[in-house]
Design brief:
By secondary structure, this protein is α+β, with helices and mostly antiparallel strands. It contains 13 helices and 20 strands. It has two domains: about 250 residues, 3-Layer(aba) Sandwich (Rossmann fold); about 120 residues, Galactose-binding domain-like (Jelly Rolls).
Length: about 450
C-alpha cells in the first residue's frame, strides 16, 4: 500500500495535466489571428480591452537551427521535489498560476528576473519575454529601471535636473534602491524625465522612495496630465503608485508615444517604472546592474527591497548571478565557500520577501580566456560556480537551469565566438547570442511546464 501511494504521488507530481497538453496543442495548431478578448471583470468595465494580434516570431526556427549548428540545446530545468513523497515541486506555484490565467482569461503572471550586466540592456530577457508572452499572453513590458535608456533595453528618452545613483557606485551599499539597484533624485524643481510609450501600455506603475524630503511629481502623457505622485512621508518607505495611460493622445486618434514626469520641487527619488497591459498574460521584469553578484544584491537596503517586492508580487523570481562571483574567486577576493554562503543568504531573503513566489537559479554562462597559443578556453571557476548553484538550488527548494551545459559545456564560448555572436571581451553575448540564450531558456521553461 505504501508503494502504491508513493508511486501515485510521484506520478501526479511529474505528469503534466492533460489540460496543459491540450492547451499547448491548440496553441501550436493556431494560425496568426486577431483574438477577440473576453469582456473584462466588472471592476475594469470602464476600460476596453484592445483587439491585438497574436503573432509567431519566425526567428524561433532560425535560432533552433543555430543552436543545432553550435552544439547547443536547452538543458531540462532541475525542478526538485519539496517533500519526500514529491507531491509538489519547486516550480509548481508558478505553473499553477500560468494555468489559472489561461482558464480565467484574466490577471497576470509575473516573473522578476534579477541579473547582472548580461541583461543590463535586456539581452536574453527580451527573447524570454517574447517567447513566453507569445504562449501565455502579453501582460506588458514590466519593470524598467528608471534610467535605462530607450534602444538600450529601457524606455528613458531625456533627463534634466535629476542626478543618478546606482548600488554598484562607490559608497552606495545599503542605500534604498528597491530591487532596481538604481535611482534618480530631483536636484531642483522642474526636473524632467521622459519615457517612450508602446501601444500596448495601458497602465503605468511608478516605483519611488517616500521620505520627509520628498515632493510632488506630475505625470503627463504627451500634453495631458494624468495624475500626481506625492513622495512625501513622515517615515521612509519604498512604494509604488498606478496610473492609467489614455488609449489616445489628447486631441488625436493615435496612441500616445511618450510620457513625462515633472517635479514641483527638489527632493523626489524615483527607482523605476512598470509598463503593464490590462490584457491577461505574463509580465517579465528584467533588472541587471552592471557588475552585480550575489553580494551586491545582499547590499541593497532590506526594507526598500522588501517593500518593492511586496508591491510587485512576483510569481517566479529568477536569480541570474555567478559570473562576477567567479571573478571574485579568481581574484582571490572571496572563496567558493563564501560565495555559496552569499547565494544561500540571498535566496532566503528573496523567498522571505516574496513567499508566494517560486524561485529559479539561472546558472552562469560560459566565459572564456585566450591562451598564449590563441586557444579560447573556459575561465577558471565557472564550472565550480555552476555546480555550487545547482547544489544550493536543490537545498533551498529552487529550480536550476544549467546555462553552461545548454551552451555546449567547456569551451562553448569559443564556438559561439567563432560564429560571431559573442563579444571579444570573452564575457558578454552580442545581440544574436543573447537571443539564442533567451530562446533556449524559454524553451526549457515551457518543457518543464509541460513535464517534458
Amino acid at each position: 500500500m505504501l508503494v502504491v501511494v508513493s508511486l501515485t504521488a510521484f506520478t501526479a507530481c511529474t505528469t503534466p495535466t492533460a489540460w496543459r497538453r491540450q492547451q499547448q496543442q491548440q496553441f501550436e495548431d493556431e494560425e496568426s489571428e486577431i483574438v477577440e478578448r473576453a469582456p473584462p471583470p466588472e471592476k475594469k468595465k470602464k476600460r476596453k480591452r484592445r483587439r491585438r494580434r497574436r503573432t509567431r516570431d519566425p526567428q524561433a526556427r532560425e535560432l533552433d537551427q543555430l543552436a543545432t549548428k553550435l552544439g547547443a540545446a536547452a538543458e531540462p530545468i532541475d525542478n526538485p521535489c519539496k517533500n519526500p513523497l514529491c507531491t509538489s515541486r519547486a516550480l509548481d506555484p508558478f505553473f499553477k498560476k500560468l494555468d489559472e490565467i489561461q482558464k480565467e482569461k484574466d490577471g497576470h503572471v509575473r516573473v522578476l528576473h534579477l541579473g547582472d550586466s548580461h541583461i543590463a540592456a535586456d539581452y536574453i530577457t527580451r527573447t524570454v519575454r517574447a517567447r513566453l508572452q507569445e504562449r501565455f499572453g502579453n501582460g506588458g513590458r514590466g519593470f524598467v529601471a528608471i534610467d535605462q535608456r530607450a534602444r538600450y533595453g529601457g524606455r528613458r528618452l531625456k533627463r534634466a535636473g535629476f542626478t543618478r545613483t546606482r548600488i554598484v557606485d562607490k559608497g552606495k551599499s545599503g542605500q534604498p534602491f528597491g530591487f532596481a539597484g538604481m535611482a534618480i533624485h530631483a536636484a531642483r524643481g522642474g526636473a524632467k524625465v521622459s519615457f517612450e510609450l508602446e501601444p500596448e501600455d495601458d497602465d503605468l506603475v511608478v516605483y519611488y522612495l517616500a521620505e520627509r524630503s520628498g515632493g510632488e511629481v506630475k505625470i503627463f502623457v504627451e500634453e495631458e496630465e494624468i495624475g500626481t505622485l506625492d513622495t512625501r512621508a513622515r517615515n521612509e518607505a519604498s512604494g509604488a503608485k498606478r496610473f492609467e495611460i489614455p488609449e489616445h493622445r489628447l486631441g488625436g486618434a493615435t496612441p500616445p508615444e511618450w510620457l513625462e514626469l515633472v517635479t514641483e520641487s527638489r527632493g523626489p527619488t524615483l527607482m523605476g517604472l512598470s509598463f503593464e497591459s490590462i490584457e491577461h498574460g505574463l509580465i517579465y521584469d528584467s533588472i541587471g546592474p552592471v557588475g552585480a553578484d550575489a553580494r551586491v544584491y545582499l547590499s541593497l537596503d532590506k526594507d526598500s527591497l522588501r517593500d518593492h517586492m511586496k508591491e510587485a508580487k512576483p510569481n517566479l523570481v529568477v536569480l541570474m548571478v555567478g559570473g562576477n562571483d567567479a571573478l571574485m574567486v579568481r581574484q582571490e577576493k572571496r572563496t567558493l565557500k563564501q560565495v555559496k554562503k552569499d547565494h544561500v543568504a540571498l535566496i532566503r531573503r528573496l523567498k522571505s520577501y516574496a513567499p508566494q513566489a517560486a524561485c529559479l537559479l539561472f546558472g552562469p554562462m560560459d566565459a572564456a580566456e585566450r591562451l598564449d597559443d590563441g586557444t579560447v578556453v573556459t575561465k577558471r571557476f565557472v564550472p565550480e560556480i555552476n555546480e555550487m548553484q545547482r547544489e544550493v538550488a536543490k537545498e533551498e527548494g529552487c529550480g536550476f537551469w544549467d546555462t553552461f551545459a545548454s551552451m555546449g559545456g567547456p569551451g562553448a564560448f569559443g564556438v559561439w565566438l567563432e560564429e560571431g555572436i559573442m563579444n571579444e571581451d570573452l564575457v558578454h553575448p552580442r545581440s544574436k547570442g543573447g537571443d539564442l540564450l533567451g530562446h533556449l531558456f524559454a524553451r526549457a521553461v515551457l518543457d518543464a511546464y509541460l513535464g517534458q
